[in-house]
Amino acid sequence: MTMVHGWLMAPFLVQGGAMLWDEFWFHRRRGLGRWERLGHPLDTLTVLVCYAIVLWVPYSPTALAWYAGCAVFSMLFVTKDEFVHARACSAGEHWLHALLFLLHPVTLAAAALIWMDMPRGAGAWRDVLVGTFVIVTAFGCYQLLYWNLWKGRKACLPE
User: Fold this and answer.
1) DSSP assignment of 81-144
2) What is the pTM (predicted TM-score) of this model?
3) Tens-of-pLDDT digits for all 159 residues of the chain?
């Protein structure tokens, strides 16, 4: 991994920190309704599809077009909760969501740039993408299990 491209890690780190802040500060304080309990893991799945492409599909112009389509779908899909958030969230949570919406395309673009450069610097950059995929997968499993099974309706908003 070269220092020239080291800046590409920044969006992953900032987005990860913001996601943890959203989850463990805001969501735990207010609880989640059914729409968010199901929707948030689906948001994570749309990101995982993008990361899966950069990990397991060799880069080509055709693959890049598929990646771009999945990335655009993911960027639009994550906005679906805003109708619920409009009545459920504090101003601070709205601000954090705005930051996450800004970071989403930046992070997906960073993953694409790493993918496009992997033949030359595959080792360390592939490790970054694999690590990101594993962490995001674990977070998606947490979202699904914590909010839908472990906490269930106890910690959630009324329907």
Assistant:
1) GHHHHHHH--HHHHHHHHHHHHHHHHHHHHHHHHHHHHHHHHHHHHHHHHHHHHHHHHHHHHHH
2) 0.88
3) 454 467 888 999 999 999 999 999 999 998 898 889 999 999 999 999 999 999 999 999 999 999 999 999 999 999 998 888 888 899 999 999 999 999 999 999 999 998 988 765 566 778 889 999 999 999 999 999 999 988 765 555 554
